[in-house]
Amino acid sequence: MYFEIDSGIRENEELTMLREQTHKFAAEVIRPAAKELDQMEPRKVAQKDSPYFDVMKQMKKMGYHRMQVLKEHGGLELTPDEIHIINEELGWGSVGLTTAIGVDSIPLAMASLAGSPELIEEVVRPWMEDTEGKYHGCWPVMEEAHGSDYVIGMSYPYPEEFGNKGFVTADRDGDGWVINGAKSYWTSSAPCANYAFLIVNLPPHRSIADIGGCIVPLTLPGVTQGPPIDKLGLRDDPQGELAFDNVRIPAHYMLLAEPVFGRFATKGVISSTSCGMACMFTGLARAAFEEALKYTRERVQGGRPLIEHDVVKLKLSDMFLKVETARYFTRVVLRHVSERSRALTFDQSTAHALSAQVYATNIAYEVAHQSRQLHGANGLTKDYLIEKLYRDATAGLMEDGANEALSLEAAYSFLEEGRYTTE
Amino acid sequence: MAVVFGSMEWYEQVKELANKDEGFKKGTADWEGAVRTVVIMDEELLKDYSREEYVRGFMSTVSLMSKEQRAQFEGTPMGNLMKKLGYSLDVDIATIDPAESAKRFSQLTLDDVKGVEMHGVFEPYHGILREMRPIMPDEYKDARFTLSGPYSAWKALCSGKQTSVQLVMSGKMKLEGDMSYMMKHMAAMNALTKLYSQIELV
What is the pTM of this model? Predict the structure, then answer.
């Protein structure tokens, strides 16, 4: 376990207990299940008898899906520090399964924050009471034709350059909305979920900036869930395509029906998910660092344990620096983003949130690479955890958009928000 | 004291509360610009207005208009509504019996109130609510923002069931105007609509 430098957290007994309890869960439940899922065929990962569903059920019992939901709707409404601790520890266990519980809560958190009393009663309350894993959410955002476009399209001054085709569209039809189109196979948990907070393109469909968002039960007629894809990393997070063919939803399931607000609200969602990713990948980076510490203490080369070589110490020091800076940067960003997101004031500083994700995923990849190098050829085998961590860290460079796209949007965001002045 | 949403008493209570509420002062500290409000009559209004106290509240705002101002409603949905209720536009409001009017409202259908709007304005200015009153449809046409929606959405807002941001995001209310300014000053909007939810409604 790491030394917590922030005395406010270190000396807080409740937070310390939360960290220990979550770490135990990550070590005893998440990590072994993730290892098993990592080596399974993708199709089997999404089957009902897969350990995936067993872990989801256990995570629900722990209340991880309720972290961000308002107390008045049955949620836990945890503090940013509590959320940070849980996400780092679970990410230490495995980012794939942590992503699954993270996206599970997006439809819930959005319905809780922006939904009508009717929607709260229909969806949020029963979901909150579910400890059996009957409900499973996801957040389909990218289309195959556009990939990371949606990230940059939020603040880019000329969104029409991205074209107005290839989106999942929502159109008014009587008392409800009709949805058409397909989300790409990068949608986390799509093959297993039964609810989505779906990002859609709204009328007049001028450009990518006409963003909306709605709750869609995936059991509705016209929804097709594709099979899980076979991929390099995060194999314990089943991803697949979702197609919508004239899917009708009632009007109160449309949470973001006004494009300007939809764009700002989506920036809010992305800011929250980016903070989540930042915490999880800090956990992954720490796991990779700890694997390096363990291995270099055991492995003897040149007549003494690797760790006794100064060149190795220097590498470890560099890894330590990265993990620690990620933790404290992501924690401060999460505090701000959580507070402002709950106030629904759209001033959560998307630039900071995206930068936190870019920073944490970059250092996670670097630390995993350094750790794998220190493992020598052993680091290439499935006998060592670092092999999986390295693959997962690689996938982290393009979570919710390629890091380059996230960085570009961060730049557009801080220029648009006008908070960074030189006066 | 519980008041009817949109009545003169309601406007007065919001104004009084705003100018002593620290949250409002802080939230609107940087705000400049008027917000024109439009309440569109709907089924929920018909249900409410079949009660005497609601009609009394409605008449309290109508009574602010001069006969000349009321004459401007001739041929408009509001003018037609008055006719359907059995009143001429130059009627002496003081002579209207709220109980009888409530009865007449209860016999109306949605078609009878189609397109009928009630207008108001609020204008915070650097922490002070300097304007908050019902207005004629042609007033404040150049307001920085217009917030409009059906009566049921306004009631959800004023009873604290939903915030203005939630209602606009979900399309139940419409906000038009300088959106980039609004996005940077959302705290002001939240502060004002939070005040609304603190007024006890009938």
Answer: 0.89
Instruction: Write the DSSP symbol of residue A3.
Output: P
Cβ separation of A343 and B187 shorter than 8 Å? yes
Q: Which domains does chain A have, with CATH numbers?
A: 7-135 (1.10.540.10), 138-258 (2.40.110.10), 261-417 (1.20.140.10)
B169/A258 CB distance under 8 A: yes
Residues of B in contact with A261 (CB under 8 A): 165, 168-169, 175
In A, minimum Cα distance to B160 occurs at A117
pLDDT per residue as tens, chain B (202 positions): 899 999 999 999 999 999 889 989 998 999 999 999 999 999 999 999 999 999 999 888 888 888 889 999 999 999 999 999 999 998 888 888 999 999 999 999 999 999 999 999 999 999 999 999 999 999 999 999 999 999 999 999 998 888 888 899 888 999 999 888 888 888 888 887 788 888 999 8
Torsional sign, CA B2, B8, B10, B12 = negative
Domains defined for chain B, CATH in brackets: 8-198 (3.30.1050.10)
Which residues are A304's β-sheet partners? Answer: A301
Inter-residue contact B188 to B124 (CB < 8 Å): yes
Contact B183 A264 (CB under 8 A): yes
Substitution target from B170, B175, B194 for chain A, most A beta carbons within 10 A: B170
Please report residues of A whose CB lies closer than 8 A to that of B163: 344
Task: Tell me which residue in A251, A254, A258 faces B168 most closely, judged by beta carbons.
Answer: A258
Q: A366: closest CA among A405, A325, A423, A329?
A: A325
Give dist(CA B163, CA B149) in Å, integer.
Answer: 13
Q: Measure A401 CA to nearest chain B CA, in Å.
A: 25
